[in-house]
Amino acid sequence: MPFTTLIGAGELAAHLGDPAWIVFxxxxxxxxxxxxxxxxxxxxxxxxxxxxxxxxxxGPVTGRNGRHPLPNPQRFAARLAAAGVNSSSQVVAYDDTGxxxxxxxxxxxxxxxxxxxxxxxGGLKAWLDEGRATDSIVPQPxxxxxxxxxxxxxxxxxxxxxxxxxxxxxVVDARAEDRYxxxxxxxxxxxxxxxxxxxxxxxxxxGADGRFKQASQLREDFNRVLQGAAPAAVVHQCGSGxxxxxxLLAMEIAGLTGSRLYxxxxxxxxxxxARPVATGPASAAP
Length: 286
Description:
Shape: globular
Number of helices: 10
CATH superfamily of the largest domain: Rhodanese-like domain
CATH topology of the largest domain: Oxidized Rhodanese, domain 1
Number of strands: 9
């Protein structure tokens, strides 16, 4: 049975060296974009390939489409195939920030129709805490062949704008509470949020150990956030469509399936001054 949400360090260790399993290191730092690749070069989970959030998990930036727009799905699939991914591969993603970036790869694989992908629960820290080995060897994989069958799990800015006052749609913002209120904005030129958006800071999905909370707890949390809305009525966003994927993963773990991503997120929304902006406190999630 494939892993489709989370995988533990022990389960991953049992499959290292299995050609049907492909591991990706997704470490990244928004303020130091090359930090993740530099850390990967020093040490990583044996056999892991590296994917860069800006270069590999995003498309060209125009200044109007957000900081991490989605790439062309065929080009993304070609990048995965070059790393050895086949349509039958079990993919595992990890980082060192509680799944903050690994969840983006998890969602993107699902977006192109590949469901056998999981995030290493607890990330590299959990791997090291269990005393598991790392190395600095960069794999030279045989090219794979991954099919693209795009799923309808993303919405664009026009959808969000058209449903801004639709009580049937819930927009959930994954950013920290202060940025949601329009305070301490350091990444985007305008502070604030999409009017009507609810707040669920993605780090609230994790326990003190850096692993995801139990499914029952996540379900309880998100049911409070959704205020009775069905998961299929939920649109997730954040600053640039990265950490929102963490909330999508958390909802999937909780069994609340069917929500969608607004990839452009706040960085796209605020690029057009004609779009409305809200600030200050609002309905904050637990």
